[in-house]
Amino acid sequence: GEILVQTTPKLDLGDMALPLAFELAKKIGRKPREIAQELAPKLAVVEGIARADVAGGGFINLFLDRSAFTKHLSTFVTTRPAPGPRDGRVIVEHTSINPNKAAHIGHVRNSILGDTFVRLLRARGYNVLTQNYIDDTGVQVADVIVGFETIENKSLAEVRAVEGHFDYYCWDLYAQVFEWYGEDKERKALQAKALHAIEKHEGPTAELGEYVAARIVRAHIATMARLNIGYDLLVRESDILRQHFWAKAFDLLKETKAIEFQTEGKANGCWVLRMDRGNTDRSDSESSPQTAPPADLLGEGASTKDATDPKPGSPRGGGAVAPRIQDDENKIIVRSNGTVTYTGKDIAYQLWKLGKLGLDFRYRRHEDSTVARPLWSSTSGDADPGAPPFGAGASLVFNVIDVGQSYPQRVVKAGVAAVAGPEAAEGTRHLGYEKVVLSKATAKELGYEVDEDGGSVKVSGRRGLVVKADDLIEALKAKASSEIATRDPERSQADREKAAHDIAVGALRYFMLRFSRNRIITFDMEEALAFTGETGPYIQNSVVRARSILAKISAEGHDVAALLKRAHDQGLLSTWLATPEGSSAWSLFLAMARTEEAIETAVRTEEPSVMTRHAFQIAQAFHGYYQNPAHTVLRAENEDLRSVRVLVVDLFVKHMTDVASHLGIPIPDRM
RNA sequence: GCGCCCGUAGCUCAAUGGAUAGAGCGUUGCCCUCCGAAGGCAAAGGCUACUGGUUCGAGCCCAGUCGGGCGCACCA
After folding, report:
1. Which of A184, A215, A258, A291 maximizes the CB count within 10 A of its CB?
2. Contacts (Cβ under 8 Å, ≥6 apart) of A166
3. Lateral strand order in the sheet of A271-275
4. How are the residues of chain A apportioned to helix, strand and coil, as percentages rounded to the nearest 5?
5. Which residue has the closest alpha carbon to B71 C1'?
6. A239-272 confidence digits (pLDDT tens)
7. Residue A464 CB lies within 7 Å of the nucleic strand B
């Protein structure tokens, strides 16, 4: 089988730890410590291992041969062996904000999470297609249309003439519509009417709806572009309707008997999907390693755990764990009036993503000056030539949606299982995440009334208790800008703006990623604006300072390239690593060497926060090393030392820049 | 009622079933005639909510209890 390798609690115990004696002890029936003592000497002769100690109750701790280790430096630091391109394709859908109002912090968490996961997948060699789903025919859009048409009495031309932050404008209007509905129950009928018109795709109301949705989508894309978030394809709900995806899915569901027509009971006259053990596992994928994608789908057999053994025959705990059998539950897919539910449409859409529907969209270029990469959109009009094969289907589909949607996601998975089999269902992944709530202090600051009992305040778009994404970015930029101003008053305005933007993005992305997905984030303005400690700016600053060291010695007349060459040619690093100074940098090298593993873990466990912690560790190790005045590059005692130190700094800059890019964190030129 | 998630330092969070439970913030001391102090060093701070169990070993697994949050619609 495979051998489990762990890290030691402290570096002076060793570079790696093997707990295998414990495993063997179970099988042979001898004391772990004895086994370890026998094995250790044998391991010590393996190439690349300098020493093998026995510690604790039976750990074998390995010390790496540091000079041998440096032979591989150039490969792991600069041209990290990116795993070759993989077969098949992965779809990640994120953002998917209702196109009726501005994006808020909850959406920002979604998009940053999704975008970072895409980056990590790509770093692992996956061919990833990023999608943003646009529900342009939902009630939320209808509500805003009611606002424009009835409350404000605006024509399409007048709405077009609305200037400025259109998504903010609709934000207020949307809230207003809700109050307006409340005043008179009859008014709610207008919502249904508008919705119907939008779905019909006819008349001025539909036209207005299309305009509003499109304009707000542009606003969302611009907001996300500020955070280095982009997409390959926008999929519009209206196109799903017009391409009759549902009709096709309905046939498939009936053919496979996945859904049944009810002739009695509560769901009389409806088509329902049976939710029982046969077509879904009950455990939610969020936190259950059991349902993680199999190794061949994700992370090439990286599960170091050699197998599953809950020890056959030995009763676990208070008794054998029986699979939970729930009463069968039925989920209505088609209502008694013949209309399809949202979940039904979602099944159709998911089947398309997996290439199992047998239908495809038409595609057009989505022209947008704020985005760098080519962006496409589904369309029911004329297709543009040159579209990538979006409809080819993916073997793995990650849907980034909040955990509140776990149940509907489970239903979709069940539908997929019934129509396309267990493999397709297994490839349907819900990348769930918890919500973002406001801390009491921040809620008060924003002028909300706060219940003194609770610790936080729920963020709800509908109730308006939120921070808008653009406002948040602006607040971060302003803070960063003033920080720069106090540190460096001479800086030009343009320079400051640029750096402030990068710092704001780094701070926000790091903040949203550092928590595990199933952790509710209590958003506190003070905390999010922090630039010290475990933050994005800490990471950025480490690189900026490292680069400024290189710039400085260059300015002092030293030739950096020549110094690097000298260090390489004379193999100075390996002898240096044995010196006390080298030892103090050893943790930095070890940390950098673990980057590939960190990315693999982040992908396999579907947990990007692994990567922020990893980045922090590297930065911390570098700070710890270079902070020591005795390690100065500029005033190095001799050229050999100087060239080694330059090499260390240079390796760190390259490596950390790479790591930061996987997190979407930009490194400013100066801070 | 059923299901899921959370409970770890004053606060915010980590910890593939492994060693003395770690970080950041905050607090208290130090360190810029030293390549950028958005930094570094150090100290104080813990019955991992509680009770049992499984295991050589439990913050983690199992059963239960108590708190907190969220889902369970012919809404989207």
Report:
1. A258
2. A215, A216, A219
3. A259-261, A271-275, A329-334
4. 50, 10, 35
5. A404
6. 999 999 999 999 999 999 999 999 988 899 999 9
7. no
A646-662: string of b/e by CB count within 10 Å (b at 16+)? bbbbbbbbbbbeebbeb
Instruction: Look at residue A291 in the predicted model and tell me its pLDDT.
Output: 35
Q: Token pair of A292, please? A: 């993680």
Strand B at less than 7 A from CB of A386: no
Q: Which of A40-49, A120-129, A318-327, A439-448 is the most confident on average?
A: A120-129
What pTM value is reported for the model?
A: 0.92
Say if residues A321 and A328 touch (Cβ distance below 8 Å): no
Q: Is the dihedral of CA A377, A378, A381, A384 positive or negative?
A: positive
Q: What is the CA radius of gyration of chain A?
A: 29
CA(A412)–C1'(B58) in Å? 36
- Please give the pLDDT value at position A621: 96
User: DSSP code of A281?
Assistant: -
Query: What SS3 class is residue A6?
Result: strand
Q: In the structure, what pLDDT confidence band is assigned to residue A97 with cuts at 50, 70 and 90?
A: very high
Q: Is the CB of A313 under 7 A from strand B?
A: no
For A233, residues 6+ apart whose C-beta sits below 8 A from its C-beta are A129, A130, A131, A132, A363, A375, A376, A377, A378, A390
Q: Which residues of A19-29 are buried (b: 16+ CB within 10 A; e: fewer)?
A: bbbbbbbeeee
| 3-state class (DSSP) for residue A504 | helix
Phi, psi at residue A183, to the nearest 5°? -70, -25
Residues 548-607 of A, Cβ under 7 A from nucleic strand B? 548-549, 552-553
Give A355's strand partners: none
Residue A11 has pLDDT above 80, yes or no: yes
Whether residue A323 has pLDDT greater than 50: no
Tokens of A62: 């390995």
Average pLDDT on A331-349 reads: 95
pLDDT above 90 (res A507): yes
What element of type H or E holds A595?
helix A595-604
Distance A283 CA to B1 C1' (A): 20
Answer yes or no: is A329 CB < 7 A from strand B.
yes
Strand B positions with any atom < 7 Å from protein CB? 2-6, 12-20, 22-26, 34-41, 52-57, 61-63, 69-76
Distance (Å, rounded) from C-alpha A370 to C-alpha A64?
A: 49
Three-state DSSP at A16 gives: strand
Cα distances from A145 to residues A133, A369, A461, in angstroms, run 20, 27, 18
